[in-house]
Amino acid sequence: MLRAFNDDDFAAVHEYGADADVVRYLPGGPNTAGETRAARSRAAAVRQERPRRHDDFAVVLRAEQRLIAACGLHLSEPDSRQRFIGYALNRRHWGRGYATEAARGLLVVGFQHVGLHRIFATCDPANAASARVLEKIGMRREGQLREHVWTKGRWRDSPLYALLQREWRPEPVLQ
Questions:
Q1: What is the pTM of this model?
Q2: What domains can you pick out in the chain, each with its CATH number?
């Protein structure tokens, strides 16, 4: 389930944000408690912006009401009707399909509720699991952005994946 973050989420967010394996391919981290608090404060401030440029969601196991991940849709350029997606998942929940489910949820939000034309994503070339998630949700690899991101003291290439609204096939709710 995707929901807004709340003040009670700090411990769960910090657990994955402080884990070096979880943030290995992300620009920041591992976080100290202070860095996690600062990141959550920045995210809360961004939610108040109008027009809204970033939509971040907590990924929660519905039955347990436990936060296990974060995901979001982020505006790349004003008025472009395209956004990029990202996600970070607690390591204890890797390999169970939760990242794919959350990413599919972002497609629903983006295409059905926000009215986007295009949703795209990049990932670290070494992050095969993230590339598989993007492919499972129907994104097509469009190319490779060379030395696209400065992260953790080095330039990194980024494979580029995207899906157009007209190509999107929503998953049926009932089977």
A1: 0.89
A2: 2-167 (3.40.630.30)
Q: Which residues make Cβ contacts (< 8 Å) with residue 55, sequence separation at least 6?
A: 72, 73, 74, 109, 114
Question: Using alpha carbons only, how large is the chain's radius of gyration in Å?
Answer: 16
Provide the pairing of β-strand 118-122 with 154-164: antiparallel
Nearest to 61 by CA among 69, 51, 49, 73: 69
pLDDT at 80: 86
CB-CB contact of 72 with 85 (8 Å) = yes
Helix, strand, or coil (residue 98): helix
Tens of pLDDT, residues 37-72: 999 999 888 888 887 888 999 999 999 999 999 999
